[in-house]
Amino acid sequence: MQRFIGLVMAACLLAALPFAALGAGDEQKKHAYDVIDRNAAATAVVGDSLFYFGELGMQEHESAKFLKQTLEGIGFKVEVGGAGMPTNVWAEWGSGKPKIVIVSEIDALPEGSQDPKSMARKPLVQGAPGHMEGHNTHGALAVAAAHALKLTMERYKIPGTVAISFGPAEEQLISRPFLVRAGYFKDADAAILVHIGDNMRTTFGFRNYAAISAKFTFHGKTAHGAVAPWEGRDALDAVELMSIGFDKLREHLKPTYRGHRVITMGGIQPNVIPDLAQIWWYVRDASGPAAKENFDKLVNVGKGAALMTGTTMDMEFVASAWPQLANKVIAEAMQANIDAVGLPKWSDDEVKFARDFQTSLGLKAVGLNTQPIKFGAAQQSFASNDSGDVTWNVPTGTLDFAAGIPGVSPHNWQAAVAKTSSIAHKGEVAGAKILAATILDMLTSPELMERVKVQFREDTKGTEYFSLLPASAKPPLDMNRETMERMRPEMRKSYLNQVPRFQ
Question: Is residue 93 part of a domain?
């Protein structure tokens, strides 16, 4: 009984301790910051090189090769091609526990090519892809933090393992469910997701929605639409009936659901009965089980459409994702480091550039953020990200870092502007410090890691993770291949062809 009371008192005392008392000391963090500062130029080379590669999902070959060489150059063991994806990059350094994984992506977006120095629309290569969200900055931040962690762990003899996961095709929700299924996170103790933003931010709770994406192809029989339409079996009718059928089902679905589609194939001309038609669906909901329940209903609607039209239906799985679940204890530790590091010290020229660009876009000229976002619980968004599967298998924190211009929406050419500028470079450096400091806290504090695990068990209680991937699902290796093979020769002319020198 006395032992129990002692444990309870210890737990209460632990809960009351400030995070600085639980994690790495100031000397260790200062060392990591110094390493990051003196390697700022090399960090910029990493991010800028990835920008000019500008590769679409599943085709990040130049980016993967470059990161492999860079990470091996700082002493990490690197595997490229795991989980059946040739551009998947997984790197590790260290040994033993705890094992912390930095999770991010490096893919670009279709038709996003843009001169990052131009405020006006100016593609580097007309029609080519480009980084109009800023995923290029992710690689810079992750490498800078990993290098600082390695040198700090060596100097202070800190045990543990640091890993980095650059998953392909985040924009298509592809890779992380496959990585989880392949067991890459089975021995991880925690993970941190990093993503570009216009401010320093961490949060906790549900961040976004679960999603399942699939294409439904209907096969019928062609016939002349005027002479003998009764001889045909109309695949397009099946597609339309599936769309209408799910529309009629919407009334009976819970308000949290989302469902949207496009018709990708619908025939060749009106007087030829289509024998081939296809509809591509996204089904979403607030949880993985709810998304799966909605998707199963959609599949049954498709089967009914095939039955009504005398056609047959094939389903091609495209992607799936659980909602991101951010760990509160990691978030609190992260916030303490955000408060300690703060935002970059912007120059007058950088603020002027941001204001001028905002004005050119018709936005309020607010310049650049100087104070971090107030800490609090996440507001669950309706969008999806394939990292959600990681967060249901490993306690996971999140870091959005300030390397973008406020008000500029991603996924359009404007968001490619300034992604190789000093604004992005300073954001990468400050974000790397916050990331490295938080991982040092977890590496050096068993008490903190225990609280992280307790929080994870509480967050996932009552919801058992299962893969939304069908057993037969394989990564779509040909995705974006034709576009990149066609565009890459001209894009090569903009490559930096520089080697980052980390010290």
Answer: yes
Asked whether the beta carbons of 114 and 413 are under 8 A apart, the reply is yes
For residues 336 and 433, state if they share a domain. yes
Give the residue from 338, 425, 496, 336 showing the smallest Cα distance to 144: 425
Q: Is the model's pLDDT at 40 over the cut of 50?
A: yes
Residue 280 in tokens:
């591509």
What element of type H or E holds 79?
strand 77-80
Count Cβ atoms below 10 Å from residue 78 Cβ, excluding itself: 18
Q: 142 and 18, same structural domain?
A: yes
The 10s digit of each residue's pLDDT in 446-470 is 999 999 999 999 999 999 999 999 9
Cα dihedral 425, 498, 61, 115 in deg (nearest 10): 50
- Whether this prediction's pTM lies above 0.90 is answered by yes
Q: Alpha carbon 14 to chain centroid distance?
A: 33
Cβ neighbors of 138 (< 8 A, separation 6 or more) are 104, 105, 106, 166, 194, 195, 196
Instruction: Calculate mean pLDDT across residues 21-40.
Output: 89
Query: Angle at the Cα of 407 (from 406 to 412), degrees rounded to 5?
Result: 110
Asked if residue 222 belongs to a domain, the reply is yes
Mean pLDDT along residues 248-260? 94
Q: Are residues 22 and 145 in the same domain?
A: yes
What is residue 23's predicted lDDT score, i.e. its pLDDT?
67
Query: Please, what's the largest Cα pairwise distance for the chain?
Result: 92
**For 328-351, what is each residue's pLDDT tens digit?**
999 999 999 999 999 999 999 999
| Residues 344 and 275 both lie in one domain | no
| 303 and 192 together in one domain | no
Q: What is the pLDDT of residue 15?
A: 40
Residue where one domain finishes, among candidates 300, 321, 342: 321
Report CA 242 to chain centroid distance, whole Å: 31
Q: What are phi and psi of 306, to 5 degrees?
A: -65, -40
Kindly state whether residue 404 falls inside one of the protein's structural domains. yes
Residue with tokens 């930095």: 102
Per-residue confidence band for 171, with pLDDT thresholds at 50, 70 and 90: very high
Q: What is the pLDDT of residue 22?
A: 52
Distance, in Å, from the CA atom of 49 to the CA atom of 107, rounded to the nearest integer, reads 13
Q: In what side-by-side order are the strands of the sheet with 190-197?
A: 77-80, 89-95, 160-166, 99-104, 190-197, 396-402
Predicted pLDDT at 24: 75
CB 405 within 8 A of CB 418: yes
Using the 3D structure, point to which of 321, 343, 376 is the last residue of a domain: 321
